[in-house]
Amino acid sequence: MIANYGYKDGSGEYYISIDTDKCISCEAGRACLTGCPKGMFETMVDDYDDEVVQIKQQFRRNLAYDCAECKPASNRPPLPCITACTPGAITHSW
Q: What is the pTM of this model?
């Protein structure tokens, strides 16, 4: 399942998507939890009793601003959360 966290406003769509099927099979010990400099990720137990990662509630309505430090307008380096996610479960919509 793909879990989408974020929002859409007049300036665009800002979603971080997490493929929970890939997240379940993480062999990196949930490295995304420490890979994000803002600490936006947390673990949770889903409806199927699997431990997966989600975006903390307080960040879901401000992704464009909270992710801005890692997403400069030009010469963008690889995003820390995506680099840390070895199963490739994390994507950004913008």
A: 0.91
Cα gap 90→83, rounded to integer Å: 9
Please write the tens of the pLDDT for every residue from 35-44: 999 999 999 9
38, 46 Cβ separation under 8 angstroms: no
Which residue, 10, 30, 14, is CA-closest to 62?
Answer: 14
Q: Which residue has the tokens 């309505």?
A: 61
* Residue 30 burial (10 A CB sphere; 0-12, 13-18, 19+): middle
Instruction: Please enumerate in sequence order all residues whose Cβ is within 8 A of that of 83, keeping only pairs 6 or more positions apart, or say none.
Output: 35
Tokens of 43: 């673990």
pLDDT in tens, 35-73: 999 999 999 999 999 999 999 999 999 999 999 999 988
Fold of 2-92: Alpha-Beta Plaits (3.30.70)
| Among 32, 42, 43, 44, residue whose Cα is nearest residue 70 | 32
